[in-house]
Structure formats: C-alpha cells, structure tokens
Automatic annotation (TrEMBL), chains A, B, C, D:
One of its GO terms (molecular function) is formyltetrahydrofolate deformylase activity. Pfam families: ACT, Formyl_trans_N. It is an enzyme of class 3 (hydrolase). InterPro entries: ACT-like_dom_sf, ACT_dom, Formyl-FH4-Hydrolase_C, Formyl_transf_N, Formyl_transf_N_sf, PurU, PurU_ACT. It comes from Carboxylicivirga sediminis. It catalyses: (6R)-10-formyltetrahydrofolate + H2O = (6S)-5,6,7,8-tetrahydrofolate + formate + H(+). It comes from the Bacteria. The active site is at 229. This is Formyltetrahydrofolate deformylase. Residues 6-87 form the ACT domain. Keywords: Hydrolase, One-carbon metabolism, Purine biosynthesis. Pathway: Purine metabolism; IMP biosynthesis via de novo pathway; formate from 10-formyl-5,6,7,8-tetrahydrofolate: step 1/1. GO terms for biological process: 'de novo' IMP biosynthetic process; one-carbon metabolic process.
Length: 285, 285, 285, 285
C-alpha cells in the first residue's frame, strides 16, 4: 500500500493557490493522486484537499509540516492540517442498547473496509457486551445515574486517553456529552441523529415524525458541538414512508438509514475527506 | 372511458367493514376495480377507498348516496364521501412570479394527463400572464398591497365561485391565505412548500438550508390549514446537495423537486386517492 | 404475540372474491388485521393476502385448510397457501467469501428483527466460518471442485433436509445451483445479484458496469429459477456513481446496496408478503 | 455577467499538469473560478476542466487557442477544447409526438434557466407544432416514410446548417439517425432513452420492463453514436414501481424521469461540463 501525504487547507480566496500548492509538490518530486478544491464566493474562502504519493518525495515526512508552513501556508494565511495515510486513526465507539450501528461498523471493520483501529467500546448498558466479545474488542460498561455523570465522563476521558483514541463515534449512544468533553475532541466526535436535521431535533424523533405525518424519515451524521443536534452535518439520507407506518415500524426502518449514514460519515472522516468551516462541512471527493 | 363510483371512508375499527362494503357492491351487481384499506390500530380507526364500475350497477347514481348511507354508513358510523369519475374536478391555480410549477402542471394538463378542468389562473403579479395565454386559460391579475388583502381575497373568492372551482393549487403563490379563505376550501387547497417540512417552515427555506449546511433539500406538498406550513402532508421528496451549492443553486435545483412533488400531490387529489384524518393523510394505492 | 393466519391467493378475476373471503373470516369470528389485494386486468387475474387474528376464531387451525378449500377456494378456482405466524420459518444461508450480506442478516437476526430460525450456514470456502462462530450457528464447509458438484449438492440437500430448512438465501454464494436443486425449493431460494437486472446478468457485473460507463449501479433480490439471473424479482435498488469510481470502488459501494436489497427481500419472504405468478412477484403491503 | 474561458483537457497522466495549467492562467492574470480534475489510473489518463474570469486576463481571447496550444497543450500531449461563456450554444430539438420532454426544456428555456438559443424544432409529426408556436420557435414538419429517410435527413442537415446549430437534442424523437448524420455532430447529439441502459435497449422498453417484472424503471441521457443505445452515458436515474403498474402507468411514470434526466444531461452539455473519452463520460463538478 502506498504511503501518502494528505493536506486539507482553507484560506482567504486569492490568486495562485492551486498553482502554488501543486508546484510545491511537483518541485519536490511528489506525484499528486487526488486533488479537490472548492471556493465559497460568498465567504471569499478557498478550500482544498490534495493527496500525493510520498515515494520519492524530496522532503522527509517529519520536515513536511514546517517546510510547507513556511513556504506556502504562512504566506497564504492558510489554516491547514497534514496527515499521512500510514497513520491509522484510532476510533472509540460509544453505544447504549441498539446494536444496528455497532454491527454495521464492526462488520466493515472486520472485513478490512475501514482503515481504522477500534481499541475499545464504551457503553452505559451491558446489552452490547456480547457484540464486542464477538469481535474481541474491549468493552467498558460505565453505568450512568442521575448523579454520576461527571465521574462517568472523567472515566470515559481517561479510557480514551489510555487507549490513545483519535476520534469517537456515538453509535446511537443516546446520551449528551458535556461541553468540556466535546471541547477535548473538536470535530472529532461523530454522532448519528435519527432524523433529517434540523427537523425533529431532540428526543424521540420517530414519535415526532409519526405525529406530524411526514412522508419520509431520515438520519443525519454530524460532528458534535456543545449545541445539541446543531453541529456540522457530514451526511444525510432519507427513506420514503407511508400512512401504514407506525412509530414502531419507523424505528425499525430508520435503523437501516441510520447505520448507512453513520458508516458513510465515519468513512469520510477516516479518509480525511471532511473539513469544517463555520459549522458547515466540506466533503471532498 | 368507464364511469366509476369512488367511496372514501373512515370509521371506528370494527369487524365486518370490508365484508359489508364489498357485499353491498356485489349484491347490486357492481364490479370492484380498486380496493385499498388501512387500519390505524393506535387510533382504532379504519380507512378504505373502493372504486367500482357503474356499468350494470343496480342502484342509480343519484340514489347511491342515500342508499349506502342507510344500509352501511350510518350503522357503521362512517365518515365518507362519494365521487363519480364522470365529475371532472375544476382546479384554480394561484401563482406569483415563478413559472416552473405552473408550466409543469399545464404541460401535463395539455397532454391530457390530468383529468381536470383549469378554468382560471389568479396571480398577484403580471409576470405569468404570458404563460396563461400560451395555454388559453383566463388569467386574473389582482395586485396585492399592504392594505388591500381583504378586498383581493373577496375578489379571489368571487372568481372561484363564478368559475365553479372545486379545489385550489398554490403553485408557489408565496402569499398566506386568511383562515376565512381556508375554511371555504377545507382540504381542498394544495400548497407546495420549498423544504422538507417540518424543517425550514416559513420564509426563505433555501437560505436557511444553506446556512444550516444540510446535505439534502426537499419540497412538501400539503393541504393548507390555518396553521402555516403545518397542514396535512400529501407528498414529500428530497434531492442531494453539497458544499458546492450556493443559495442560488439551491433555488434552482429546488425547482425540480418542487414541481415534481406538487404535480404528484395534485394528481393524488384529482384521482380521489387522498383522505385527511387528524391533520395527517392516507394516500390510497 | 398474536397468533395469526395468513392466506395468499390468486385466482381468475371474478365478482365477489373480497366479499366472500372477508365474509368467511367474519362469520367465523376472525378479526382481519391486514388485507391487500391486486387485480391484473391484462391477465384477468386476482391476487390477495389477508391476515387475521386466530384468537376466538371459530375454526380450529388444523381444520382451516380443508374448510376454506371447500367453502371458498375450490368454487373460486383459487391457487392459495395458508400459513400461521406461529410457524417460524427455517432459513439456510449459503455463502462464499464475502461477509457483508451474511453480517447484515445475522445482525438483524441477533437483534430479533428477523422472525426466523437459522439452523445452518453452508459454504464452499472456509473464510466465513469465524463469522458463523461469532453467532453460534453451525457452519458446513463443502469444498467445490470441477468434479464434485453433484456430491456437494447431494450433501447440501441432505443437510437442508436434516435441519428442516424451509427456504435458502444465497448471500453472495457465487455458485449456480442445478435445476434439480432449484426444483426442490421452488420460489424458496432467494439470490442477491449484484446489478440492476436485466442489466449485467452473469459474472462480473461491476466490471461490465464500469466498462459501459453507467451512472448508477444496483442490486436485485430474486427467486432462483433454472434460468440464471432470470427468476422473479422481489426487490431492487440502485446508487449513484460517477467517473471517479473504479471497479474496486464499485465493488465496495455495491456491497451496501446488495446487503440492503437482500435483507429487504428476505424480510418480505419471511413475512409471507411475496407471491409469484408467471415469473413476476406481487409484494403485498 | 462574467465572460469566462473554459478549457477541457485530457492527456497522458504525468507530473505537473495541474501546476502547469494553473500557473499559465495565474501568470497571465486570470482568476480561476472552477477547477475539477480526475485521473483514471487504469487508463493512465488525466482529465481536467478549468474555468477562469477573462476580466484582466493578459491574453486576448482570439490568441488564447494558439498560445495555450504552444505553451502547454502540445508539450503535454493534450486533447483539449476551449470555449467562452459568451458563446451561447445553439440547440436544435428533434421530437415526434410526446410533449413532456419538449415542454420541460422549453419551460426552462423560457424562464432563462438554460443558457442556450433554440433556433428550431424539427419533427416527423405535426402534433407538437402547437407547442412550438406557444414559444414562438420555428417548427419544421418533415414527414418520414419508408422510402424518404435520406431526403429527410438531407433536409434536416440543411436546416441545422442554415440555423447554425451547435448541438441537437432528441427529445423522444423515436427515429434512428444515420451514421453519416451522427458523424456530423460527434458527441453533440443527446438522446433520452426510456430505460436504465444497458437494460432494455431498443424499442418498447416499458413493455419489456413490465414483462420482466422489474421493481424500478429508469431513463438514460446519452450521446448518440452509430451503435444504437450504446453511446456515452451522461445521466441516469430510476424510480420505484410495483406490481400495480401496467405498461400504461409505466409509460406515464417514466415521462417524469425521462424529462428530468434529459434536462440534466442537456444542462451539463450547455455548461461544458461533459467530456467523452473511450465511449464514457467525465461529468465535471
């Protein structure tokens, strides 16, 4: 497998950005594999993701951050991140009782389709320990009560640090994380909300959808912010429903769209194809 | 073309409804063409649409209402309506400036695909008079100001009565009708709202969608009630969008989903396939 | 959980079918839960599925077949089947190497979403034995060579009989069953084909799709007949692709639509909502 | 409105293409508005579309072709085309009897949504002359018989030349053009086929779809080549159908997907976002 460098950039729109970046890579003998860019004219902001093969590249990986910063990023006022495909991100999964999203992620992981490590699963219930055991992944049951949320969060954070977690997936976790927790993983906590946001934010969206009589239900994969269900949206999808559907059948049908949307959002994150700007995402090709 | 009778029913759920209704039709020598039924167990309510060929039917059309009422509907506490396919409904179209929904309806009408009469088009602007002229349909321009809404509504109502209008389609009319107007056409005014309700109710939904950073936009065809954008939903659909989209491109892409959703909602209404119960619709097959 | 009776019928179109069937159920004190019917006017054929609560029903389950046959089915020339919801069907899964469809089925099964027993999994490869072990389901590896297909099929049939299998799901099994095998399970073997049939029947559909430059790929869940990839279609779906996709990315994206389509087809079969007539399916509501 | 230059390129994959092209534009003071590129690794071929503002650009439009050819295209073995947004393409529409695609195109045109001129409509039937009159577009009725196809084509070609037609849209024209005709407009004749190709190529696809019992029908917008229904696909879409659908209802439902797919394909062509390579299309963002 190729070792590649991936740069994600945003900066004020200006002439010569693509030329400068691609020239930098070419001059140092890098072979560009993917390049996708976007200009937001209303915001006068430029966004780009470029990935190139490091085989034969003239700058050593450990010097790349500084070299690019000085040569390109600083002069062009770029906000940017550098990743290497050789860095496999470590993903924690938080769950409650529903298994569909967890199974979908673990089935992909098990088939080698998610380029990720899953060092642990954390839950406030025991229900899914058996699933974790099936896949030989450590499972931590931290029971939540009205009073112990701070202690549970402290332990969750400790575990995430101990297991060197890079990002967290809330796979129908059904609990709200504190602002302090969120602040530790900015744009690195992915939640699946079981409605097409902003419709039916909050609890019991399928009850609300049934009550309103909508003709489609959906799911939204988004980064978690301190504003509940209002974080940057990564992926959304819907399915058609009808008057035949009960709340129970909506819950059941919704599972399919939830798990697909969450897995696609997680895949985009793992592939370093997401970029957040002003509470919205760019999803690169 | 066949002359058929169409009955739409709802009543308390109870044994024998389908048997009683179908037996009534069979006994009088009616040939059932379509039958669709639904039971809402939470509401303990039964819904049915049945359509049969009147050729050879033993009860004269003008006696059918009373005969069925006495024999079946009253004993089973039915709320029901009777229509004949020979009654071509008369549809008024209200528009403002955008032509896409109007053209889509008129193109279908012109091709003989909508079994409807369109006696008039009413607008608060002159822009689409030319479109009405293309299809030889009377166009009434009633200019709206801050102060003349009651007079304009009075004239709209007078025109609808004069032209014997059965139902009204708000084809991006962009004005709110008064509760009094709505009350004259209960479940007989169809609006297209340019979002997947309940998300982005109210004005400028594409601006709101762009601002929120959603990954899909939609449209909702619904019956108008006095509660703005909260009436019974007939049809909804969405299309995928991306970070490349501007407010302007959302407006443009949205037109396609708006016109398709509205035309499908209008088609369902014309075919007498809709039934409203407690602010939700049953859409029969 | 309710014990219900489910009848699926087709017969020549004629007056009084719905009335006769529903009257039969009502007269014997049965409460109809679901009823869906369809008339194919070109074929002059009537189709119906009706499900009713057996609680308080006046005919004993073991007498129902004969009573309905004499009273209704024979006079109306019905081809029909009777099932009871208390009969949990037993499903064998045949796999080769790809795990996505198997995991999707087993995750649903494990969550109690599929009302089915899965007594065994059969494969021509060892790859997925580990998955079967995760879910504690017996796994039989029957290695296929050029020469031993008859022996392998004999053993497959023996196992299916021993384990009292009602129907078989080919979850990307990638092998063709003999006509003799198919004849043992008519309309009871479900295959997932990785294209929107009839496009790209046969081997390597993603290669063919890539070569043709289509803009969408799909999957087809169908009953297996002796005519390869030509059996009655139960369910189909597609996803959009683009020029960016390689054969490899089509294979990967295709997995998502394959597993969803197969699971929906299996669900419809388990719920006794499918009916085959002249190589086409009726899928009841 | 901005005057922009649009370049579409394909060439052997090699280092420095993006850098060279973007540097060329920047050096001559061009502001890049859109850039999208794609590398086909299997074909080792690079594709790019770049659009920039000509305001302040240092090279005069009439010298741009030669300057870019010598500086960039020849050294990099590019096959490329140059367009200016100020060149409004001239589109002929060929129709037979069905009005839905024609109305959809003309409604968009009339609303100013298609940046195109429509100098004439050609048909082998008189049916749609009235539609052309509604929009004040010259309509030429050239009646086709078994024997006069060469003469009719000669007259069609003469008209297209006289009216300076750049490309042709077959909006359900239902006739096969000769190879000689096609050769005059390579990748400049767009057809809508009423199936998801390659399924149901040829005549009567809805009859074939109904007969096969598929659960979705579709439409394909493609460039016409001498190989019937096998040209490069620009756009495809599908809609769900069911056992309730007759051939007639498929024809009716299919109209909606046909007109949407054709209009999107035409829009992509007008925006110079299509590029054909080896019978497949790149559709740029």
């Amino acid at each position: 497998m190729q070792n590649t460098a991936i740069i994600r950039i945003h900066c004020p729109d200006q002439r010569g950005i693509v030329a400068n970046v691609t020239d930098f890579i070419n001059r140092h003998n890098g072979n560009i594999l993917y390049l996708d860019q976007h200009t937001d004219r209303a915001e006068e902001r430029f966004f780009m993701r470029v990935e190139w093969d490091l085989d034969g590249f003239a700058i050593a990986p450990e010097k790349l951050q500084q070299t690019f910063e000085e040569a390109i990023a600083t002069p062009m006022q770029m906000v940017w991140t550098l990743n290497f495909s050789s860095q496999i991100p470590r993903m924690a999964i938080f769950v409650s009782r529903a298994s569909h999203c967890l199974y979908d992620l673990l089935a992909r992981y098990s088939a080698g389709e998610l380029n990720v490590e899953i060092p642990l699963i954390i839950s406030n219930h025991k229900d899914l320990e058996q699933v974790a055991n099936q896949f030989d992944i450590p499972y931590f049951h931290l029971s939540l009560t009205k009073d112990n949320k701070p202690e549970v969060e402290a332990e969750q954070i400790r575990l995430c640090k101990e297991y060197k977690v890079d990002f967290i997936v809330l796979a129908r976790y059904m609990q709200i994380l504190s602002s302090e927790f969120n602040a530790l993983y900015p744009n690195r906590i992915i939640n699946i909300h079981h409605s097409f946001l902003p419709a039916f934010a909050g609890a019991k969206p399928y009850h609300a959808a049934h009550s309103r009589g909508v003709k489609l239900i959906g799911a939204t994969g988004h980064y978690v912010t301190s504003d509940l269900d209002a974080g940057p949206i990564i992926e959304q999808d819907v399915i058609k429903i009808s008057h035949h559907d009960t709340v129970q059948s909506l819950v059941q049908k919704g599972k399919d769209v939830e798990k697909m949307v969450l897995s696609r959002a997680v895949q985009a994150h793992i592939d370093r194809k997401t970029l957040v700007y002003k509470n919205k995402t760019i999803i690169f090709a």
